[in-house]
Amino acid sequence: MREAVRTPPNSQRTALRAFGAKLTRTLDSVYDRWATDTSRIEAAVPGDISSAWLLPSARRRCFPGSSLVLDALGLNPTRAALLDVLTALAARISVLNLEERNSELVAQWQVQKAPDEGLGTTEISGPLAAQLIDELPVLAAIGLNTSGGIRIRDAKELRVKESDRIALVAQLLRAMGAEVTEF
After folding, report:
1. CA-CA 20 to 30 A from 31: which of 39, 61, 119, 151?
2. Residue 3 pLDDT > 70, yes or no?
């Protein structure tokens, strides 16, 4: 499989590793050699970062000053880009209990009260937008808690990924009183 931009490894690739498949990644490709032993395994699937972050974004509005712990979230290097963006916005996040389960990093995250002035502002575009494609809708929601919003560019895949997620997220944000411009 070839990729113009490195995207998150999905559960299928993680599951293949758990069954013993050998995966090799280059800068723009992933190659696999199938395992010969495909016997049954027992595995825990880590929590999805993009779904889990709806709680902290709502928490600030509903429970100011609170602290929230998110348990057993997948934290592979490409999905963890969300953590980088949030800390750049001045979110107060601690990664706790980092461990490897079934060839995937899993951690507990603690999200504490945001700074009194709110979170900063940022723009997400280019390769970072591709890397964060599943997290972009939740980042748009987090934009409600920022001082100047979050500008997201180069995310046209969201127009055709299961549904037009850009239009749906914009509609929901407007319903909550946000100013939203679709590009």
Report:
1. 39
2. no
Question: Please, are residues 13 and 31 in contact by the beta-carbon 8 Å criterion?
Answer: no
Distance CA 137, CA 183 (A): 14
Q: Which of the residues 28, 134, 154, 164 is marked catalytic?
A: 134
Give pTM, 2 decimals: 0.72
Amino acid at 173: L
Q: Locate 27 and state its tokens.
A: 């800068």
Residue range 13-49, pLDDT digits in tens: 666 666 666 767 676 665 556 655 666 667 777 888 8
Q: Which residues of 98-127 are buried (b: 16+ CB within 10 A; e: fewer)?
A: eeeebbbbbbbbebeebeeeebeebebeee
Contact 18, 47 (CB under 8 A): no
Contacts of residue 3, Cβ cutoff 8 Å, sequence gap at least 6? 28, 29, 30
